[in-house]
Specification:
With 341 residues, the chain is of the alpha/beta class. It contains 12 helices and 11 strands. Helix 1 crosses helix 7 and helix 8 packs across helix 11.
Length: 341
């Protein structure tokens, strides 16, 4: 089992869990000798050699979770794919009295929709008024608001004894990352041209390595800490800038960093979307993991190590077609030449 205090075999249900964080968590739990059941739609194949039990289904189908909850009891349930309050309420109803712990995977976006929420955001910053629906594309705002609804449903159920824990995550990196955000910079580093960073990438970032999320989840599943509370997870380094992260992608790929500072307005004027740098966004949360350090024993992996691990995976097992935003690359290089790069 790996630790003397982890001798009990834990029966865990993962709702979702075949793509990124959940895949790694299933691997870790199986390696520790636990029993894992994956409930998913079958769109992303499981890759555990038959060691994990799979139940195919759609949680949005009427009664799907209720039938699952009625069929057996789980020591722990981890919900990776609740995006609407009604989905969380259905899970609460299905697993009330049927699990010893329910872990909800939430997001730092719950702070970004708060009016005047500080950076870094702490758990105590959750309560308070939210900002109005923004003009244009409100998708990220809606995501944060709906996840707040999920959290609020859990908090209300917790008052009645439902054994939940919420983990609020920022941007997560690591092998199998399907968002391809870091991959976007790697593709550009490998073609020999510069990465164009809107406004120089000087904003501080505080992301998370998938392995650190998994270790914290495994500890929660095996132990009794953190019931009835929400915790932030994030890297512990304070002074990392987006520019530093992008330059490290070059180094991890064995290339000399080439980063070109371009004002955001100049990119827009050239017909380039800011998403050519997908980590340049106001919707990237900046979290304080202090409570998780104190209460859960959370520790983060050094950021250079996880950049290297992520780049290594992308260059081997993860190397597929380029990210969609790479279609803008010819225009990026043309702009770089015009600016003397």
């Amino acid at each position: 089992m790996g630790r003397a205090d982890e001798a009990r075999r834990v029966k865990t249900l993962l709702l979702g869990g075949t793509r990124f964080i959940g895949h790694h968590l299933a691997e870790a739990l199986l390696a520790r000798g636990h029993e894992v059941t994956l409930f998913h739609r079958g769109r992303t194949p499981s890759d555990h050699g038959g060691a994990a039990r799979e139940v195919l289904g759609d949680r949005s189908a009427p009664g799907a979770l209720a039938r699952l909850g009625a069929s057996e009891r789980f020591d722990a349930v981890v919900d990776f794919c609740a995006y609407r309050p009604e989905e969380t309420r259905a899970a609460i109803e299905a697993f009330s009295g049927r699990t010893g712990r329910f872990i909800h995977i939430s997001t730092g976006a719950v702070y970004l929709v708060r009016a005047g929420a500080p950076r870094p955001a702490r758990e105590s910053d959750y309560d308070g008024p939210t900002i109005p629906r923004p003009e244009g594309d409100p998708g990220e705002w809606e995501y944060g608001m709906l996840k707040r609804g999920c959290e609020d449903a859990l908090a209300a159920a917790g008052l009645a004894g439902f054994p939940f824990t919420t983990l609020r995550l920022p941007i997560v990196h690591g092998p199998r990352d399907h968002t391809l955000r870091l991959h976007s910079y790697l593709w550009r580093a490998l073609d020999g041209g510069p990465v164009l960073l809107p406004d120089g990438g000087t904003e501080p970032v505080r992301h998370l390595y998938v392995g650190d999320a998994v270790e914290t989840l495994a500890r929660l599943i095996e132990g009794g800490r953190g019931l009835g509370r929400a915790f932030n997870l994030a890297m512990e380094e304070d002074h990392l800038r987006l520019r530093d992260l992008v330059e490290e992608v070059f180094r991890a790929a064995g290339r000399k960093p080439r980063v070109l500072d371009v004002p955001a307005h100049a990119l827009t004027a050239a017909g380039l979307p800011l998403m050519i740098s997908p980590l340049t966004t106001r919707w990237a949360s900046f979290l304080d993991p202090g409570e998780a350090r104190r209460e859960l024993g959370f520790r983060s992996t050094g950021w250079r190590a996880w950049v290297q691990a992520t780049v290594d995976w992308f260059r081997t097992a993860g190397r597929g077609p380029p990210p969609e935003n790479h279609g803008h690359r010819p225009r990026e290089l043309e702009l770089a030449r015009a600016r003397g790069a």
